[in-house]
């Protein structure tokens, strides 16, 4: 399944609100016409101790730059220089990030919640982490950080006394979840929760194989994918996802936001329903990683899911088709489910979408489903008529005709007469 941002608006609102508040709190820099996204102006030379809150913010900004550089360089000593409390936890965070191919770290101060006495400071921070080979831009999440000013032989400086992600960051920064194991492999970063720790080596090998499969088979390939495998899904509720929906799917493709508040990548999630059996995991992983490869192609749900299914089942000796689809085909299928209805009946609609793509491939070649997706996405076709115009021009068919043909093919699969 591909989530098109379930729970996303709330996260986005939080981001924008925090920045508007930051500007209101007297942090320097930024024009008001910039939707509150303007960063704080570059810090002046860190030596000068400012007696104003804005000055303190600028000094803290400089500390965060040092901290970011230490994380990217993997320089534990330099990182430790920014730490002034909650040491074990901060170091654990640093060590987890060291396991990732971190190419860039960005910080932006958001809402300032304490900073009146000029020796202590607390604020929301937007932390961006870009993984080399995985993210085109930093993926931004929200944290709460606290600092205090300490005196040393080289004058006073700020250190971080507390640094915690706000709840709901499991998709953005799964490595921040206590108990998770992070491992980077061939084009895959895998994060497993505590319950799946013993299965991590095998899951990594399977995710790597699925990534290579998609890289070879899907136009445009797939250089890298972040894969989450969680047995305990409760955290995903705080990320704004519908738990019942997550549990019902073997996997999900979940978007993550960049500095401009727009989706910049998607993460693949493997749920307990997708972990059952080697063969089933392989199909689910290939399905979700196809979404990761093609996530920028906006199209109706049937086409997005149909292409992911089509790709995932390539070369499988055993094809699984849900019995419910056979029953529906026997009763007659003559239309493609519209967006909104697709996920309401997954047992019928996933096979239907897969067979619709198989019909396209049978009549127009193996690449036809990908071409259909790209063509529909290129013109931004959303409505039924617009999609049909593209399908008609390229393939001489319509979505409903494809559904009808797919229904007949499913009926034949089950050896029953098609009703339509
Ligand atoms: Zn899907």
Account of the 3D structure:
This protein has helices at about 10-25, 55-75, 75-80, 85-100, 200-215, 235-240, 245-250, 280-295, 300-310, 325-330, 345-365, 370-380, 385-395, 400-415; strands at about 100-115, 120-130, 140-150, 155-165, 180-185, 190, 225-230, 250-255, 265-270. With about 425 residues, it is an alpha+beta fold. Among the domains are: about 10-165, Nuclear Transport Factor 2, Chain: A (Roll), CATH 3.10.450; about 295-420, no CATH class. Strands 5-6-7-9-8 form a five-stranded mixed sheet, covered by helices on one side. A four-stranded antiparallel sheet has the order 1-2-3-4. β6, α5 (about 200-215) and β7 (about 225-230) form a beta-alpha-beta unit. α9 packs across α11, α10 (about 325-330) crosses α11 and α11 (about 345-365) crosses α14. The protein is elongated. The relative contact order is 0.09. The model is unreliable at about 5-50 (pLDDT under 50). Zinc ion (ZN) binds near residues 287 and 308.
Defining key terms:
five-stranded mixed β-sheet; 43% helix; alpha+beta; four-stranded antiparallel β-sheet; binds zinc ion; Nuclear Transport Factor 2, Chain: A; elongated; 14 helices; 420 residues
């Amino acid at each position: 399944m591909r989530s098109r941002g379930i729970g996303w608006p709330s996260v986005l609102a939080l981001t924008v609100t925090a920045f508007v508040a930051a500007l209101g709190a007297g942090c320097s820099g930024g024009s008001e016409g910039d939707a509150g996204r303007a960063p704080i102006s570059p810090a002046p030379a860190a030596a000068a101790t400012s007696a104003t809150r804005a000055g303190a913010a600028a000094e803290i900004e400089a500390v965060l730059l040092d901290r970011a550089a230490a994380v990217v360089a993997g320089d534990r000593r330099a990182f430790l220089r920014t730490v002034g409390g909650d040491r074990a936890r901060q170091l654990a965070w640093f060590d987890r990030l060291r396991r990732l191919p971190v190419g860039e770290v960005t910080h932006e101060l958001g809402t300032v919640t304490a900073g009146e006495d000029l020796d202590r400071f607390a604020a929301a921070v937007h932390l961006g982490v870009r993984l080399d080979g995985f993210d085109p831009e930093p993926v931004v999440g929200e944290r709460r950080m606290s600092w205090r000013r300490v005196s040393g032989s080289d004058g006073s400086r700020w250190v971080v006394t507390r640094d915690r992600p706000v709840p709901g960051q499991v998709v953005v920064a799964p490595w921040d979840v206590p108990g998770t194991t992070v491992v980077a492999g061939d084009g895959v970063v895998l994060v497993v929760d505590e319950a799946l720790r013993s299965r991590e080596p095998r899951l990594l090998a399977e995710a790597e194989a699925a990534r290579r499969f998609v890289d070879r088979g899907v136009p445009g390939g797939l250089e890298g994918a972040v894969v989450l495998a969680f047995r305990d899904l409760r955290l995903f509720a705080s990320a704004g996802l519908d738990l019942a929906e997550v549990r019902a799917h073997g996997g999900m493709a979940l978007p993550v936001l960049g500095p401009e508040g727009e989706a910049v990548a998607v993460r693949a999630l493997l749920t307990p329903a997708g972990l059952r059996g080697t063969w089933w995991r392989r199909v689910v992983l290939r399905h979700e990683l196809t979404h990761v490869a093609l996530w920028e192609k906006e199209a109706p749900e049937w086409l997005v899911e149909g292409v992911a299914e089509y790709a995932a089942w390539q070369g499988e000796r055993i094809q699984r088709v849900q019995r419910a689809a056979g029953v529906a085909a026997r009763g007659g299928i003559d239309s493609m489910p519209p967006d909104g209805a697709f996920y309401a009946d997954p047992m019928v609609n996933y096979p239907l979408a897969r067979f619709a793509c198989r019909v396209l491939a049978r009549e127009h070649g193996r690449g036809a489903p990908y071409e259909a997706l790209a063509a529909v996405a290129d013109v931004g076709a959303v409505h039924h008529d617009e999609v049909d115009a593209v399908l008609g021009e390229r393939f001489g068919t319509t979505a409903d005709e494809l559904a009808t043909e797919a229904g007949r093919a499913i009926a034949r699969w089950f050896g029953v007469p098609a009703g339509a």
